[in-house]
Design a protein that fits this description.
Oligomer: homodimer
Protein name (chains A, B): Gamma-glutamyl phosphate reductase
CATH class of the largest domain in chain A: Alpha Beta
Catalytic activity (chains A, B): L-glutamate 5-semialdehyde + phosphate + NADP(+) = L-glutamyl 5-phosphate + NADPH + H(+)
Distance between the termini of chain A: 59 Å
CATH topology of the largest domain in chain A: Aldehyde Dehydrogenase, Chain A, domain 1
CATH architecture of the largest domain in chain A: 3-Layer(aba) Sandwich
Enzyme class (chains A, B): oxidoreductase
Pathway (chains A, B): Amino-acid biosynthesis; L-proline biosynthesis; L-glutamate 5-semialdehyde from L-glutamate: step 2/2
Shape of chain A: globular
Order of helices and strands of chain A: HHHHHEEEHEHEHEHEHEHEHEEHEHEEEE
Low-confidence stretches of chain A: 1-6
Mean pLDDT of chain A: 96
InterPro entries (chains A, B): Ald_DH/histidinol_DH (IPR016161), Ald_DH_C (IPR016163), Ald_DH_N (IPR016162), Aldehyde_DH_dom (IPR015590), G-glutamylP_reductase_CS (IPR020593), Glu-5-SA_DH (IPR012134), GPR_dom (IPR000965)
Number of domains of chain A: 2
Strand order of the largest sheet of chain A: 10-9-11-8-7-12-13
């Protein structure tokens, strides 16, 4: 199908793809866990045996991207080599090996009238994944969906269109070789933006949308979607160093939270130093020495002459870079008020040896992830022991924080009787 | 505030109410479970001591409703008397006594690096309840929300406006007397429909909307809302009587599922009789004898001369009345295909003594509630042991089937470390 399929057909296209996807999903829902695992192993094998085709397609994407003037960072996200492709295949095989929550009983109860009630995990249904330049998402997201019996409609970035098609074709061949329907993973056959709009509007056809990419993409999806969206927009993460913090722990945690990797959503963006904490100069000094640009309020500027003034916008900025805003606060109430006013409900942490204050912070801070004496960079599905993640969510419903297989399931009630009537 | 507050101010009104509600909710989130329980007991007491005021307000609503020509059924839903009001107060006290899921750990894991990860239940936040003529919802829904630390914005029907205000005032006085903020329960001060529109649009301010009422209300809310909605639109519930059904059980279950109460969402609307089941004449005979109008396909009409022809629309109709559509099917595959084509994912049941067929039906039918050898009229939070329900949901995310206290919570991750950095 041509890339320039006209936008007036977008809704019809999504109707058709969703119909095929829902049919395939019903077949997946009847498959057992081992069948789905074997199909993903076959998909991993297909990715490996298709390596020459996939790498050639990727080389064309990279060449087109260079001609189009993509930045080096974008080209790096786009580029595959033999090692990266093996990593993609290995990740699909790893998802195949993950424990499967589908069929698990969440609760079980026998009523006085003898009715047995169970809630069991089931697939959500048909999931739309909208992503940008990294072609690995084509394999990753599809594998996570299929592992728990969901079908997926994938819409990748234009710059990776050839790579995505080659990866998609291998995945489909793998599923089909194992007897599962290839329509379980469909790649949108057009890069027309109207098709994305139609996906976002397809309430009742697509059950959930997961945007994977930069803030612009996520914001557009959240603003326009009528389908429920699982995502986070910002990770404006705070670390509050309390008066009773262990100075060494606080130094290590603050440096890691900001500087280990500055571009990930779990990176610290604002450091709140308690005025009563004596170790602040060492923390700020470490950060500046490590190459971090530190912007602070008046009291933070007084800690180290290299701290530059922060303006109002700094407290609401996710830098995703070696930049940090620092405020000095008077006690936990002021710290938590700052987080409530400026946080994005992603990951916020306290460093303290005072168990009562820690307990209060954990209870009262209203974020998907709240940490005590740990680096916010642990906000990650792998680090949480989930094996993988489809993303991190900061919405309030369904699944929060790192979302992996369990977040890609829902449940139904089973009621087992022996002829009971309500009478 | 006047009832005719102009609609151009609707968004500003909802902004203001939501701001106050979110502030009150933060206070509720810090309260402990006993504090919330005591506040609801105080609210129940206030409802009792305000009985003269509430009943007088209700009498005015009823008089206005009579003058406006409300139907007897609507007037009955609207009317309170001393017994009904005591029932409302007792229901609030019963919610106070329910076990509270907030603070419960859903999961707990210690990672190899020593990090302790817990998921704990927390309130959702600010919940909008949009309902029709029954004034008891003002107390019921508010009590369920507050029990688990949510704030609520209530918008009841115009015909019950005086009753709702009197009930709301008593509830607020109860909360305040126990030291909780009255703004935890706010009643929309206007019946302007634009304010409802503003509630539905208030994504990020209101966390969830629960519509309580007829299909017209639910359909409008589902169509217009940008805020997540927890509800069901239809309860087109099927009972499939398999070839290996016990004839006596099947008779009792079918009669109860249809006729115990015909107007509730768990009532059976379509009966699927297996062609190989010998007991169909008795089942159909019972139903017709009980006053049910039975409409059937050709084979169903052949079972009993009193069965009238069904047309295409019958299979997609929720009668909520003593009317039933009956189809004869050849085996479980055809039964499940009919349910997949015409069901509303609410409650579907099989009657059979064949455990394998039952297991397959329970696994494959994609409804919020799937039953074996039981009447679909058990689809109810009280019958499920939940103590109460805010409604039944047929969406795929967050909470499904009867939704009670647990469905009014979400979770956050707590990460407890000893100085771990990701390094």
């Amino acid at each position: 199908m041509a890339l320039d399929e006209p936008s007036r057909d977008a809704a019809a296209l999504i109707d058709r793809l969703a119909g095929a996807g829902r049919l395939a999903q019903r077949r997946l829902a009847r498959s057992d866990s081992c069948e789905r695992a074997r199909a993903l192993e076959a998909a991993a094998d297909a990715l490996r045996s298709d390596a020459p085709v996939i790498l050639a397609a990727n080389a064309e994407d990279v060449a087109a991207g260079e001609a189009a003037g993509l930045t080096p960072a974008m080209l790096d996200r786009l580029r595959l080599d033999a090692d990266r492709l093996e990593g993609i295949a290995a990740a699909v095989a790893a998802v195949a090996a993950l424990p499967d929550p589908v069929g698990q009983a969440i609760s079980r109860d026998t009523r006085p009238n003898g009715l047995v009630l169970e809630r069991v995990r089931i697939p959500i249904g048909l999931i739309g994944i909208i992503y940008e330049s990294r072609p690995n998402v084509t394999a990753d997201a599809a594998a996570l969906c299929v592992r728990v019996g969901n079908a997926a409609i994938l819409r990748g970035g234009s710059e990776a269109v050839r790579s995505n098609r080659a990866i998609h074709a291998a995945m489909v061949r793998g599923l089909e070789s194992a007897g599962l329907p290839g329509e379980a993973i469909q790649l949108l056959p057009t890069q027309d933006r109207a098709a994305v709009g139609a996906m976002l509007a397809a309430a009742g056809l697509i059950d959930m949308i997961v945007p994977r990419g930069g803030k612009g993409l996520v914001a557009r999806v959240q603003a326009d979607a009528r389908v429920p969206v699982l995502a986070h927009l910002d990770g404006i993460n705070h670390t509050y160093v309390h008066a009773a913090a262990d100075p060494d722990k606080a130094r290590r945690i603050a440096l890691d939270a900001k500087m280990r990797r500055t571009g990930i959503c779990g990176a610290m963006e604002t450091l709140l130093l308690d005025a009563a904490f004596p170790g602040s100069p060492a923390i700020v000094g470490d950060l500046v020495d490590a190459g971090c640009a530190v912007r602070g309020d008046a009291r933070a500027q007084a800690i180290d002459p290299r701290v530059t003034p922060a303006d109002d916008a700094d407290w609401d900025t996710e830098y995703l870079d070696a930049v940090l805003s620092v405020a000095v606060v008077d006690g936990p109430d002021e710290a938590m008020a700052h987080i409530a006013a400026h946080g994005s409900h992603h990951t916020d942490a306290i460093v303290t040896e005072d168990a009562d204050v820690a307990e209060r912070f954990l209870r009262e801070v209203d974020s998907a992830i709240v940490m005590h004496n740990a680096s916010s960079q642990f906000a990650d599905g792998g680090e949480f022991g989930l094996g993988a993640e489809i993303g991190i969510a900061t919405g309030r419903l369904h699944a929060r924080g790192p979302v992996a297989l369990e977040g890609l399931t829902t449940y139904k009630w089973l009621v087992k009787g022996t002829g009971q009537v309500r009478g």
